[in-house]
Automatic annotation (TrEMBL), chains A, B:
InterPro entries, sorted: ManC/GMP-like_b-helix, Mannose-6P_isomerase_type2, NTP_transferase_dom, Nucleotide-diphossugar_trans
Domain MannoseP isomerase/GMP-like beta-helix: 322-368
Name of this chain's protein: Mannose-1-phosphate guanylyltransferase
Tagged with keyword Transferase: yes
Domain Nucleotidyl transferase: 17-302
Superkingdom of origin: Bacteria
Entry-linked Gene3D superfamilies: Spore Coat Polysaccharide Biosynthesis Protein SpsA, Chain A
Length: 379, 379
């Protein structure tokens, strides 16, 4: 059933942008860390932190209707980045509980405020361009989310540009006939990260999109699936949401939040909903990067080149001889690289990473190792 | 002609230890640098700086008779290291003039003070053990230096332990018959740094010793050869030495020192003297290291091992995974090495070097490059 009575404009008025700002960005350690996570960095040299850029990209659609979900420790930094936020626009987690609880709580709070809200969830630490192509896709997603009797949970799938083995994929199904959303399709299935061979088949088929974790959905439909699949989580979030805009918020949250199960929103809602036929996808033809490693930082920046070395960081003074790779500097130190290939160096005031492009994904192990050895001051 | 009237003891009373403390140790940048040269570092983990260890090693022979030649900039640091020094025991160079001027001035000043002095010149930045073997060799060198009518310029040659291509060699000639110096021999020739093949032949022959730049000689004989081979240098040094222990020192030095030619003592004195038959050699069976690169620092220290990584520096917190090499840390930063082989990392508060063992000798190029780019604050 098509969107009927409501004009497209009024559907967009139901849209609230939710920005989960949670991940530490361990793969970018020591640049990104618990005290200064990825979303609080300007990783593209644009002059904006990733969270600010996320806000600005959504602002024309949300028209001031935002909900940022972040850790207690980041409240001040997030509010400095987005002074436009009212206190009621920020949801603080006293401890991290994975995306199921974070996004589920956003859905539950918004549902209490207005059950007709269509939420769109967009992580705070992704890089997207151009904005207008992204915004057009979100608009289609909002129309699709509002379509039919119950609406849809609408993912925005990224049109793949290479056979990535680092992302999950979404296989599109039949086209949906949604007014204002000509490219919306059903989701045939979500698939896990493929190996190289499979990824190449996906790319060649033209049927697969990258799962970027972006979705737009009526909060009511979100909560229905959450209740059906994760009743404990749902009950807890509902109890917190009921108290959220009352004087009882702190008491209830302190009591209930720590007891909630940790589960990703994909497993708690998206995949069961897809199996139930409630998930659609809108392809996005914009450039998208989750800045998953230092190679991504090299790609995304108009870095200066010192011979074959990409240098990021305005203060860095780099001398190179027979060297190649990338230097990310958060200091003003002199860095001399001599006779070393494909190196990745990340220099911060209290921690230094030296690895290679090939091994950069293992940075997570360093963080785990340092945690185990008690060197938590730099994590 | 043998040492005749004077007993061995009285010959040793003529001995003055000269310690040229000049080189920056560029190959150890950024640990060693102009403001904190090699000789002011404890590079062996012994608890003593190299210059202090040099002083202590010579003290039983010199019995308080020292002359340290160093740069104006290092006066305070040298005197902190060796509080035993009187002001008259320190010769300050207003600008570096190579070893010919530095050691020549020491000879000229000592000659003014007493023409019978036998000087022994020992660089401030070498590592030697055990002390008693070294001291026995120096004693033999002093006896040899005092032998005959004019005396000898006596080098102490190091018995080679491997076919080094990084040092010059001394080929020993016929044995000399010197009382108190049974191992003294004539010098057949000085030879330049050989290639590997030649170095192996030298080692196998048993006739060659490493030229460590150590020598013991009557100041009178030193100055005779200097006068014959470098008359301009000789005249200048003589003029400065005549004023040295007078109120005219500053005026004369300021006028003359800058005009002196830059030449190594080897070319100014040792080689011409050898050609004239005035040079002898005493073999030294002690362990000797000029700490020429970071690999040497690895060898000389009881470093701790993190997997295959040698870690120097008490404050360093190092995490390694699939890494090998050496980390020299002058900071308390966390350093994570992942998937990188044979790396050399030198971490100081204002400069970082990342290279490989194979390329470590090219560090000089980095220093030259940074000088050219104006980054002299870290040199």
């Amino acid at each position: 059933m098509k969107l009927s009575s409501a004009a497209p404009g009024s559907v967009l008025d139901r849209f609230v942008a939710v920005i989960p700002a949670g991940g530490v960005g361990t793969r970018l350690w020591p640049l990104s860390r618990a005290a200064a996570p990825k979303f609080l960095h300007d990783l593209t040299g644009s002059g904006s932190t990733l969270i600010r850029a996320t806000y600005d990209r959504l602002a024309p659609l949300a028209n001031g209707r935002f909900l940022v979900v972040t850790g207690l420790a980041h409240e001040a930094a997030v509010c400095r980045q987005i002074p436009e936020l009212d206190p009621s626009d920020v949801v603080l987690e006293s401890e991290p509980k994975d995306s199921g609880a974070a996004i589920g709580l956003a859905a539950a709070i918004l549902h209490r405020r207005s059950p007709d809200i269509i939420m769109g969830s967009f992580a705070a630490d992704q890089v997207i361009s151009p904005d207008d192509v992204f915004q057009a896709a979100v608009r289609e997603a909002v129309y699709t989310a509002a379509s039919g009797e119950r609406g849809k949970i609408v993912t925005i799938g990224i049109e793949p540009t290479h056979p990535s083995t680092g992302f999950g994929y979404i296989r599109g199904g039949e086209a949906l006939d949604v007014e204002g959303a000509p490219s919306a399709r059903a989701v045939a299935e979500f698939v896990e990260k493929p190996n190289r061979e499979v990824a190449e088949k996906y790319l060649a088929s033209g049927e697969y999109l990258w799962n970027a974790g972006m979705f737009v959905a009526p909060v009511k439909l979100m909560l229905e699936h959450l209740a059906a699949n994760q009743p404990v989580l749902y009950e807890g979030l509902t109890e917190i949401a009921a108290a959220w805009d009352t004087p009882d918020r702190d008491e209830v949250t302190a009591r209930v939040w720590p007891t909630l199960p940790k589960i990703a929103i994909d497993y708690a809602v998206a995949e069961p909903a897809a199996a139930a036929g409630d998930v659609a996808v809108v392809p996005g033809a914009f450039r998208w990067d989750d800045v998953g490693d230092f190679a991504a930082i090299g790609r995304l920046n108009s870095a200066r080149e010192e011979d074959a070395v990409t240098v990021l960081g305005e203060g860095a003074r780099v001398f190179t001889e027979d060297a190649s790779g990338i230097v990310v500097s958060d200091t003003k130190r002199v860095i001399a690289l001599i006779g070393i290939e494909d190196v990745v160096i990340v220099d911060t005031p209290d921690a230094l990473l030296v690895t290679t492009k090939e091994h950069a994904q293992k940075v997570k192990n360093a963080v785990a190792g340092l945690k185990a050895s008690g060197d938590t001051d730099v994590l």
